[in-house]
Design goal:
single chain, binds calcium ion, 11 helices, 277 residues, alpha/beta, two-stranded antiparallel sheet, eight-stranded mixed barrel, 44% helix, binds ligand C2E
Length: 277
């Protein structure tokens, strides 16, 4: 039976061969997308909960596919990881991100931009030199560049992660543990990492008003983070009720649709001027 995916491709479910064909097509197209300038940088605001002011943005990549339209990274990041395409993709995001962060810096808008790195980036021997090169090219202030690494990426190869994070930290950037709560990291391990903040995974935040279990996880993560001298960011703040609960719990930073959707990087400063935040 024919089915349309979000990619806009008709495919016939149930056949492994056809799934393989589709994946191969997408991989080829993704390779083209990176070289043909089909990627777009989107940014989502983060708000400081105490002041209610914008305190930064997260860089989120999109794929402007010539036929399918805007494709979200949920559909192609995993594919890129498997196809060995994450390195060129990350390099693209780094260049676009540093360029945008520099534009904000030049216009007097001091908004740190956080860039997502994937597990494989921690094994990219050119990563650190590339980042150093971008700092040299643009002259970004280090405190306006941040990196997010998922808890599971850090647990993949703890020794390698510690090494790369330490070198990043020597550049005076800020480091975030992303999707916190979905991996199985131990407190003793976390304490060794030179990170500045943890981001509570959105699955817990989105359900914290409806589910007591989620509320307990969010509350204890905020306490744990603060006990370790880390700032705590909640992602997936979708409505005011969640915001209120997080404020009561002393969460530092909020990100989510209640505050703002990801928008094109070039529109971010206009958005900020006209938003209530
Ligand atoms: P993430 O790093 O956890 O990013 C947050 C995701 O949650 C984003 O999805 C964002 O649009 C979405 N989101 C934000 N607020 C809300 C909310 O209130 N409710 C809900 N339901 N969702 C919200 P997006 O942009 O589709 O990205 C998905 C994932 O793809 C990201 O998850 C990240 O793991 C990965 N990704 C995105 N951009 C990059 C990138 O440049 N490099 C790498 N390596 N991964 C990226
Ligand atoms: Ca992230
Ligand atoms: Ca996340
Ligand atoms: Ca405003």
């Amino acid at each position: 039976q024919a089915r349309r995916t979000a990619m806009g491709y008709a495919l016939y479910a149930g056949s492994l061969d056809e799934d393989c064909t589709r994946r191969l097509t997408l991989m080829g197209e993704l390779r083209r997308a990176i070289t043909n300038d089909e990627l777009r940088l989107y940014c989502q605001p983060k708000v400081d909960m105490a002041s209610g002011r914008v305190c930064g943005a997260e860089a989120l990549v999109r794929w402007q596919h010539p036929q399918a339209g805007l494709v979200s990274p949920g559909e192609f990041i995993k594919l890129a990881e498997r196809a060995g395409l994450i390195t060129p993709l990350t390099h693209w995001v780094l260049e676009a991100g540093f360029c945008q962060a520099y534009a904000w810096q030049e216009s007097g808008l001091d908004r740190p931009l956080s860039i997502n790195l994937s597990a494989q980036d921690l094994h990219d021997p050119s990563l650190l030199d590339r980042i150093r090169g971008l700092f040299a090219t643009w002259g970004n202030r280090p405190e306006l560049i941040q990196f997010e690494l998922t808890e599971s990426a850090l647990m993949d190869d703890p020794a390698g992660a510690l090494e790369t994070l330490s070198r990043l930290k020597q550049m005076d950037v800020e480091l975030f543990i992303d999707d916190y709560g979905t991996g199985y990291s131990s407190l003793s391990y976390l304490q060794k990492l030179p990170v500045d903040a943890i981001k509570i995974d959105q699955s817990f935040v989105m359900s914290m008003v409806a589910s007591d279990d989620s509320a307990i996880i969010v509350r204890s993560t905020i306490e744990l983070g603060h006990n370790l001298d880390l700032r705590v960011v909640a992602e997936g703040v979708e409505n005011e009720a969640i915001w209120e609960r997080l404020a009561t719990l002393g969460c530092d930073t909020a990100q989510g649709y209640f505050i703002g959707m990801p928008i094109q990087a070039g529109e971010f400063s206009d958005w900020e001027t006209h938003s209530r935040w």
